[in-house]
Amino acid sequence: MVDKMQWINVLSTRPSLEAAISEVVEEALIKLSAKPNLGLVFISSAFTSEYSRLLPLLAQQLNVPVLIGCSGDGIVGTNGWGQAQELEAQAGLSLTLACLPSVNIRPFHIIAEELPDLDSSPDAWIDLIGLPPNPTPQFILLSSNFASGINDLLKGLDFAYPGSVTVGGQASGGGMGNNIALFCNNKLYHQGTVGVALAGNIKLDPIVAQGCRPIGIPYQISQCDRNIILELDEQVPLILLRDLIASLSEEEKILAQNSLFVGVAMDEFKQDLHPGDFLIRNILGVDPTTGAIAVGDYLRPGQRLQFHLRDAQTSAQDLEFLLKRYREEKISDPSPVGALMFSCLGRGQGLYRKPNFDSTLFRRYIKDIPVGGFFCGGEIGPVGASTFLHGYTSVFAICREIGNRVGERR
After folding, report:
1. DSSP type of residue 175
2. Which residues pair with 334 in a beta bridge?
3. Which domain of life, per UniProt (predicted)?
4. What is the DSSP code (8-state) at residue 57?
5. How far apart are CA 371 and CA 94, in angstroms?
6. CB–CB of 160/120 below 8 Å?
7. Interval 176-187: pLDDT, tens
């Protein structure tokens, strides 16, 4: 009987799907000392025409009770030298296998039409997932697109499973993302959300790096209408924004033309705000007549807001800050066994001008654990006590045992 959690990842760059599957399965099973009960597979869009062959070919060589996965325009995995590698615009197959003793694993596929109304009771969402709220489950979700109802699903899970952690991403592939694949056990889907709920002796620690830095000072929203800011600190928002941009350096002014965002503070009472305290949202437009600003989320009066900028240096600094903080806060917890990485298509080499940046930085601070994942069309992760769909973000989920011995920290 296995009583210790195991987590491995294998990455293949072979251009033949059969060869790639054989490579990842053979190496993965050699590394494991017990039968896996969870698998996650990510396949690059270089294999778009062969998505339907993935699960039958895997089933010939791998027997795992629960397997989910999806397609991605980029794939993340751990190569034969134990290094994290991000494969962008090339063939790649990433397979994670885990032995999770004392963990109840519940796979599911949900389409938008099956979602309960947001006014429904928690029981409706619990019936949908098929898992009780205690012990608190952890969720990994892989969705198709906005039509999948992913935002409503995230709200429902937060409502029905308070204290749970939900991470994941939207599948990508096929140029504009029209040709994507979702996998759940022996079935291939093109719409909806596939996922697993993990309940028991397991914890997923999230790191959500949105890649922005604040500029200016925080303002309080004094008037708004859904996603339109009408007043900040009882002043015209556009006037405040113009004054702020005028105070920036020349380099920052250029950056603000294309990389200006708003950050909404998620803790209404926290005075000293840092990276990770804000939910970053796009600025959708301004009304020069009224001075109102439209953003990519609903707001309410009383919330605090600060403008943000994003570039490669800021993105790197943001992730490094969060990794340092995590290492300091979790040093006495049980050691992590593995991690998943869900990174935006807008990051990677296109942002940093060098390969493997986020995954290498992650391994600098969280050492010697396998990492698997993919490049997403949207990233799922918590900010504060709620879960959101993000853009331009890298979400890491670090897996560890909770620890159930007397006196052991939970």
Report:
1. T
2. none
3. Bacteria
4. H
5. 10
6. no
7. 546 899 999 999
Strand-pairing partners, residue 294, are: 228, 285
* pLDDT tens-digit readout, 155-194: 999 999 999 999 999 999 865 546 899 999 999 999 999 9
CA distance to 27, 110, 247, per residue, from 207 (Å): 28, 26, 32
Residue with tokens 């719409």, as numbered in its chain:
191
How far is 106 from 60, CA to CA, in rounded Å?
23
User: Which parts of 302-407 fold into alpha helices (H)?
Assistant: 312-329, 348-352, 357-365
Pair of tokens at residue 327: 């290492």
The angle formed by the CA atoms of residues 287, 292 and 295, to the nearest 5 degrees, is: 95
- CA distances (Å), 74 to each of 15, 28, 140, 340, 376, in order? 14, 21, 19, 14, 8
Using DSSP, how many helices (H) and how many strands (E) does the chain show? 9, 25
Which pTM value belongs to this model?
0.94
Residues 148 and 154: beta-carbon distance below 8 Å: no
Query: Which residue, chain included where needed, has tokens 């995230």?
Result: 154
- In degrees rounded to 5, what are phi and psi of residue 396? -110, 140
pLDDT greater than 70 at residue 1: no
> Quick one: which of 337, 360, 356 has its CA closest to 347?
356
Q: For residues 21-55, b (16+ Cβ closer than 10 Å) or e, as one string?
A: bbbbbebbbeeeeeebbbbbbbbbbbbeeebeebb
Of 70, 38, 76, give the one whose Cα is nearest residue 51.
70
DSSP string, 218-274: -EEEEEEETTEEEEETTB-HHHHHHHHHHTS-HHHHHHHTTSEEEEEES-TT-SS--
**Quick count: other Cβ atoms within 10 Å of Cβ 334?**
17
Helix orientation angle between 17-31 and 51-61, rounded to the nearest 10 degrees: 40
